[in-house]
């Protein structure tokens, strides 16, 4: 497998699955990190019953013990060959010519994200709030169709009163990526 990224709770690899060697993304959570187990559970809870063309598809998840006797919790997703939106919006110097989104592509990506959020907030049986939506959590497939990913901080809401379920209120404080402020959020 090839390392393709890392986040707060784990490391992400590109791998091959099955006899057909289908490309997949494998997110291996660092279970020594505080909150990783809760992130794994949140992601599994959210992704097990939802399906939308603009949400990343989870193929499988595993909860086991590794050879060293430590918890091992990987999540396997469909692979997105065009990476995340952040690398397209802020390409490294050598890739600026290769990663240039047209206005139409940018609008289509915004529509994809809005469509996924509409689904999560209003069309799911239990409304879902992502809590960490940022360009690096928007993945792009081979046709540059946007897929929201990383539901480790997501919250399920009760439809009747629009409050988070009690089991999801155990952690306090600000959710999301520290140091990230989306465009237009700072005056």
SSE string? EEEHEEEEHHEEEE
Helix content: 10-25%
Strand order of the largest sheet: 1-2-3-7-4
Please report the number of helical segments.
3
What's the number of extended β-strand segments? 11
Instruction: Please name the CATH architecture.
Output: Orthogonal Bundle
Q: Which blocks of ≥5 consecutive residues have pLDDT under 50?
A: 166-174, 183-187
Mean pLDDT: 86
Keywords for this entry:
187 residues; alpha+beta; Transferase(Phosphotransferase), domain 1; 5-stranded antiparallel sheet; 24% strand
Structural features, described:
With 187 residues, the protein is an alpha+beta fold. It has one domain: Orthogonal Bundle (Transferase(Phosphotransferase), domain 1). It is built from 3 helices and 11 strands; from the N terminus they run βββαββββααββββ. The strands form 4 sheets. The chain has a 5-stranded antiparallel beta sheet with strand order 1-2-3-7-4, with helices on one face. A two-stranded antiparallel ribbon has the order 5-6. The longest helix has 21 residues, at 103-123. The radius of gyration is 17 Å and the shape is globular. The model is unreliable at 166-174 and 183-187 (pLDDT under 50).
């Amino acid at each position: 497998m090839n390392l393709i990224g890392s986040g707060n709770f784990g490391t992400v690899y590109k791998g091959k699955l099955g006899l057909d060697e289908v490309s997949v993304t494998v997110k291996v959570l660092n279970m020594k990190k505080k909150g990783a187990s809760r992130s794994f559970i949140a992601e599994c809870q959210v992704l097990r019953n939802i399906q939308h063309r603009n949400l990343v598809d989870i193929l499988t998840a595993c909860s086991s013990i590794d050879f060293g006797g430590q918890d091992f919790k990987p999540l396997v997703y469909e692979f997105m060959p065009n990476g995340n939106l952040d690398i397209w919006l802020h390409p490294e110097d050598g890739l600026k010519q290769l990663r240039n989104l047209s206005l139409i592509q940018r609008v289509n990506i915004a529509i994809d994200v809005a469509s996924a959020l509409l689904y999560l907030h209003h069309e799911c049986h239990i409304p879902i709030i992502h809590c960490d939506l940022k360009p690096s959590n928007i993945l792009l497939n081979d046709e540059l169709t946007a897929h929201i990913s990383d539901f480790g901080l997501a919250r399920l809401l009760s439809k009747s009163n629009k409050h988070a379920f009690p089991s999801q209120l155990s952690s306090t404080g600000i959710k999301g990526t520290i140091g990230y402020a989306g465009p237009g959020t700072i005056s």
